[in-house]
Amino acid sequence: MKAVAVQAFGSPEGLAVIDLPDPSPADGQVLITTEAIGVGGVDTKIRSGALAAYGFSEGHVLGGEIAGTVAAVGEGVDTSWVGQRVWAFTGVGGGYAEQAIAPAATLLPLPATMSAVDAVALGSSGAVAHFGLRHAHFAPGESVLVRGAAGGIGIMTVQLAARGGASAVAVTTSSAERGDRLRKLGATHVLDRAGDGGEDAPAGYDVIIDIVAGADLPSFFAKLNPNGRMVAVGAVAGEPPANFAMEMFAAFQKSMSFATFSANTVPAPDRHAVTAELIAAASRGELDTVVHEVLPLEQAVLAHQKMDAGEVFGRIVLTPSGS
Ligand SMILES: NC(=O)c1ccc[n+]([C@@H]2O[C@H](COP(=O)([O-])OP(=O)(O)OC[C@H]3O[C@@H](n4cnc5c(N)ncnc54)[C@H](OP(=O)(O)O)[C@@H]3O)[C@@H](O)[C@H]2O)c1
User: Fold this and answer.
1) CA distances to 39, 262, 274 from 267, in Å
2) Residue 193's closest CA among 130, 154, 147?
3) What are the start and end residues of each CATH 3.90.180.10 domain in the chain?
4) DSSP reduced 3-state for 56
5) pLDDT at 198 (0 to 100)
6) Highest taxon of the source (predicted)?
7) Which ligand 1 atom is at minimum distance from the Cα of 312?
8) Which of 33, 67, 133, 195 fits as disulfide partner to 138, beta carbons 3.0 to 4.6 Å?
9) Does residue 317 carry a pLDDT above 60?
């Protein structure tokens, strides 16, 4: 089978299409003939070598999120899965391939009305957005700012906050065109990356979901209302300055909170149940899945170049040429 591996850490050109033997599922696993493969930010980080300290080495086959048809099951897995179209989470690799292994516990049957491409566009981003808002104790009627809203997690957070009855959903983004697209998904105010602009935007927010972090994170504490909560769910601009909490201390009387959130702390069955609910909601047309572009698996280099260039709104999805 064809797969895409990191042949050399660094630029996208270090990715290579290779031939591998078809994998076979171990106990508790299934083999999936892939139809759609999500390209995530973590894939570009692994490819760059930034996560080498976490055990990723050259030769690694990327890809954590796939949809396709179950071709075989391992010991202890219900054989009725064979032939079913599913969404699955492979973990941190093995997905950029014509055949991929996933734990049976992650499988979700795809509704007949949902394409494999849409399923991977929504997939894990939806669950991160849902639990990120929950971690921030978001309640209906509260105002929300989504910082870095143009990626998979932000797009889902905007939609879930709007559906959840937010009084305002402001977003930061880098272009008016992206702002218009985010408005169609539920954003009420569009700010620039620094959090400025946005006609009639609220002066403060009850909840800030921050996907960006980086040097500018502390300046966003000034945008929290009293008792406001900022939750960092990502760090696309890197870590914040070491003394970032000083801005919060300087406004002690506002009783603000800051937290990080990782979906790794959510029990797997809860993530599974929420992903199932969100896939069902999308199949009913209640949530939009945003696919930036569908590319053949063999063009994974181009997909990563587009990711690195910051030109992706939503998700790039790879499809094996056979599907
Ligand atoms: N918490 C969890 O469990 C979890 C799970 C998976 C991934 N993650 C994390 O989530 C992040 C990826 O999320 P994603 O795919 O939704 O995001 P993304 O698409 O990589 O980035 C989101 C948006 O941030 C904006 N942005 C990029 N660089 C920026 C900068 N230097 N300053 C300000 N804005 C910038 C861009 O939009 P504009 O150009 O429009 O501004 C971009 O579209 C990663 O940090 C990943 O590690 C977290």
Assistant:
1) 24, 11, 11
2) 147
3) 2-122+266-319
4) coil
5) 86
6) Bacteria
7) 43
8) 133
9) yes
Distance in Å, CA 135 to ligand 1 centroid = 18
Q: How wide is the angle at C-alpha 228 spanned by C-alphas 227 and 234, nearest 5°?
A: 145
8 A C-beta contact, residue 216 and residue 147: no
Reported as a pLDDT band with limits 50, 70 and 90, residue 141 is very high
Q: Would the pLDDT of 34 be above 80?
A: yes
Among protein residues, the one whose CA lies closest to atom 36 of ligand 1 = 148
Task: Confirm or reject: Cβ of 51 under 6 Å from ligand 1.
Answer: no
Q: Helix %, strand %, coil % for the chain, to 5?
A: 35, 25, 40
Numbered ranges of CATH 3.40.50.720 in the chain: 137-260
What is the sign, positive or negative, of the torsion defined by CA atoms of 323, 46, 91, 217?
negative
**Cα separation, 189 vs 104, whole angstroms:** 41
- Protein residue closest via CA to atom 33 of ligand 1: 193
Query: In which band, very low, low, confident or very high, does the pLDDT at 199 lie, cut at 50, 70 and 90?
Result: confident
Probe ligand 1: pick from 39, 146, 211, 315, max atoms within 8 Å of CB?
Answer: 211
- Under the banding of pLDDT at 50, 70 and 90, the label for residue 123 is confident
- What CATH number is given for 2-122+266-319 in this structure? 3.90.180.10
Q: Which amino acid is at 7?
A: Q
Residue 1 identity:
M
Fold assignment, 137-260: Rossmann fold (3.40.50)
On average, the pLDDT of the chain sits at 96
